[in-house]
DNA sequence: CGTTAACTGAACAGACCTGTACAGTTTAGC
DNA sequence: GCTAAACTGTACAGGTCTGTTCAGTTAACG
């Protein structure tokens, strides 16, 4: 009945304000951190009334949560694009490293500052539920690597598990160092180290 | 003339307030982040007048800087203690991993949340000078590892360099994941991976 | 055209932020 | 005891913070 009306109205009308808020929040939250970025700054830069923000998000914490979810989805989209170019499981693992490099490259113009998800977790207290979102994101990354390694090393599951953790440590460590230095060269080094590990694992069964 | 007087007064009298401020700031900054922790919270918990804070530190930013310097010195002290137990260069490298585990263990009761230095860097904007303090700290850690590896692999300097970077990525990556999970088991895994790498490098020259 | 939902701008509440000012108290060394 | 330094408590200035309220506007729909 009013399904198409409400649905169309929501799709055609609610989007602009919500979308502009998410785009602006993404830029500011990443560049300056979530605690240091005020609501007033976001609505002014987005050109949106404060009432519209609180019509779309019940609180700043929910906006932060939406930001984290968007970053996770964005990461997955970049990863899937990289995965399409991958020939086999070895290249699929390296696609994860390339995805991290893509993230660094995308943030370069505004000032690369490391992983946006991890940075948010770093400024939230220990029990905050938003930290769990970040924890699960990193677990997803490791699980994706593991999936490819199980194809690469079908007869050696526990070696695949250890290698997946090893590679995910390399990824996160290189990302942290790269963020401090403001460029992605550390991620390129990590990719080189990863290829050596993959070759070593494939060579000597 | 007034050197002994002023010196003694500074040692006997200025310390208490400054020290209590640093101890309290360390606890709060680590647990809740520097931006989310207000000056009033710190002075109340330290039992110190606001005037005393601004007599010892010219601004909150300087207190944050003192916090970072203290964490760096604390790390070095823990590392030196671990290094004394190390038999050779191989064990010296592992002493760095043990130092990270010590940090995680020390923060366990209040709520382990990853590397305190890296967490501060994560909530500061790109150009902030405090980020350089953290960057240099991490470069120091890698340089210490490199020094031990140059002893372990005296004839292969470029392999030592690549391995030092590899091990430092492992350290930081495991620390980040451990912080998200709230316990140090990931650091133990990283240490195991490090021993395998060290054995591999020593075995096949 | 009239309904409905999204949106706007502005004012407001109440709290918290950093940093300063000031008058007075405690403590150490002479 | 006297001086000088560190320290205390309180009040204040001038912002900024999140979140709410409200009256009025815009735009898409049947």
TrEMBL record, chains A, B:
Keyword flag DNA-binding: yes
Keyword Transcription attributed: yes
Keywords: DNA-binding, Transcription, Transcription regulation
SUPFAM superfamilies, sorted: Homeodomain-like, Tetracyclin repressor-like, C-terminal domain
Occurrences of domain HTH tetR-type (ranges): 15-75
DNA-binding stretch(es), residue numbering of this chain: 38-57
Cross-referenced PROSITE patterns: HTH_TETR_2
Annotated InterPro entries: Homeodomain-like_sf, HTH_TetR, Tet_transcr_reg_TetR-rel_C_sf
Gene3D superfamilies: Tetracycline Repressor, domain 2 (1.10.357.10)
Protein known as: TetR family transcriptional regulator
